[in-house]
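Recap for those who missed Tuesday's class. We walked through two folding examples back to back. For each one, the amino acid string is listed first and its predicted structure tokens come directly after. Nothing is annotated here on purpose, so try labeling regions yourself before you check the end of the notes.
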Amino acid sequence: MDIMKKIPENTRILLVEDEKNLVRIILDTLVQEGFEIEVAYNGNEGLLKFHEIRPHIIVTDIMMPRMDGFEMVKRIRETDRNTPILFLSARSETDDVVTGFELGCNDYLKKPFGIAELIVRIKALVNKPRVERQCKNFYTLGQYMFNPISQTLSYQGVLSDLSHRESEILRYLCENREQVVHTQSILLELWGDDSFFNTRSLHVFITKLRHKLAKDKNIRIVNVRGIGYKLIG
């Protein structure tokens, strides 16, 4: 995919950031690139503007007054699972990155960042084909029933919820059951980027899924060293 191709006309970005100097730099640059920009300075304002303008992409900080980026994205994802979201943050600990992806963000850019990299990331998300995958209503995994639509896992009639990212990963593994799936393939398919942070996040999510599938010993997600993962059972 050529991420430097022209952006679709009238592409609206919602920028949610409380650092006014950074807002000014990003705003000037993105306007020159042909984007329409709406700015909010905290999560509460960002949530209101999201429902008002329905942007094509959201670029947001995490640490903000009144409502942080995590809470804002959580509320947005309750009604909208498709609008691409890019987190900007100085917080790069694995737990923070994982939290962001669990909530449904699509990319994560660590501060300080180069403005050119921000533009490339935004264009990649905007130009990423938004093809709705034909998804099965459920998968049978031994004694488990996995519903990717409702993002739930059922064991002997007891339901447990999966996060958005956990559900996406498990669905991908189900679609390729009994086959070795390359780590890079999962990252590019679900994250759109095979960066170091995303690789660490994937490992954390795989560990969580293993715990949630542990009641049936016949269902396993095995690590194929140096290659990727394989869903068995």
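Example two. Treat it independently of the first, because the proteins are unrelated.
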Amino acid sequence: MKLHFFGCGSAFNPAMGNTSAWFEMDGCLFLVDCGETVYELLMKRSDLREYRQIYVLLTHLHADHVGSLGSLISYNYCILGRKICVIHPRATVVELLRLMGIKDEFYNYYQELPEDAGCLRAEPVPVEHADNMDCFGYILEAEGMRIYYSGDSARMPERIAGMLKDGKLDAVYHDKPLLRGCTGGNGAAAAEAQSILYAPGRGVQGHAGVQGIPGGGGWLIGYGRRNGIAG
């Protein structure tokens, strides 16, 4: 399993593309988030008819993470005659899609990854990001690899910091700088995790903001026993 990225820009930097990861496995496409710029980039890159199924895992419902999800659903249902799978632990995504005019029967909604996804395991991890919605990272496991994908959170959960410290993660994608340490406070695990993540040569910029606008800038971190991060 190797993560690739359609973009590494923040909500206010469409020139770099909204941050979204993807990988292929068992004839399926797995997409993490589907922001405003993602559908166009996906259509330029791929013939979606080649995939047996498409699974979209959502970290949260900000526009730069779900803004083109409706277009992806509609294209697959109306043009290709199939339903893609949308995964988010909260059914609020269903309500959001209804407001976009996307009918429930256009796609399959799951709170967790369905069993027919094959050998991939995706465990949602609650993270802090927005105060008006639930937000999640994911532990992704497949092909003997375990990757943590943070979503937009600038704080690493204590459990994830411990897994990183103990070498139980093969790779980490952490979208934003660890500005405030772990969810449980600025403990030793947080400090050690931060020193591991920001070692020279282990990351490239992600969630990059526009110059002069605060709140942007993060890191795509490739770390671990095997690097699971690709451009």
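Answers for example two:
The first strand starts at residue 4 and ends at 7.
The domain at 4-221 is CATH 3.60.15.10 (Metallo-beta-lactamase; Chain A).
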